Amino acid sequence: MLKGIDPRVTPDLMDVLMRMGHGDELAVVDSNYPAHALPTRSNRVVELPGLDVVQGLGLILGLMPLDGFTDYGALWMERDGAGSNPDPVHRAALEVIAAALPEGAQARSLERQAFYAHAPGCFAVVRCTENRPFGCFILRMGVVF
């Protein structure tokens, strides 16, 4: 047992986060996302049962810094036909993300198919038990100062 680490952080999640470096990306997705069908660079899928995507993002961002050196620190999947107009799941998650973004960094949206094309370049996928559709995000690892 370790002190000071949220007990919801699974060994698999800790391992993935510890293996990531600056610029690596992590997909944090809902239960609809085909996590095992779309391989990532590490071929790792971490399950966070019992946590919705907002809780999962909060857990991860308590440990992982977001990138402030590129044009985005996080990406989110647009609902089909909605463009960059966020759904309630996006608004709730973007509040958590905004609190973790370094000064000048931003979160951007991606059209759903563009998100699916981008996600295989991620280091790994964390799948939450979020049941709201389009509740999918990509976090870009920053640096610790």
Summed up:
This protein has 145 residues and is an alpha/beta fold. The chain has helices at residues 11-19, 53-61, 88-100, 112-118; strands at 25-29, 44-48, 74-77, 107-110, 124-128, 137-140.
Distance between the termini: 27 Å
Structural class: alpha/beta
Per CATH, what is the topology? RbsD-like fold
H and E string: HEEHEHEHEE
Mass-distribution shape: globular
How many domains, as an integer? Answer: 1
Number of alpha- plus pi-helical segments? 4
Biggest pleated sheet: 6 strands, mixed
> What's the total number of strands?
6
The main sheet orders its strands as 2-5-1-6-3-4
Helix content: 25-40%
The fraction of residues in strands falls at 15-25%
List low-confidence stretches.
Answer: none
Q: What would CATH call the class?
A: Alpha Beta
Taking all Cα atoms into account, the compactness measure Rg is 14 Å
Keywords: Isomerase
Protein name: RbsD/FucU domain-containing protein
InterPro entries: RbsD-like_sf (IPR023750), RbsD/FucU_mutarotase (IPR050443), RbsD_FucU (IPR007721)
Catalytic activity: alpha-L-fucose = beta-L-fucose; beta-D-ribopyranose = beta-D-ribofuranose
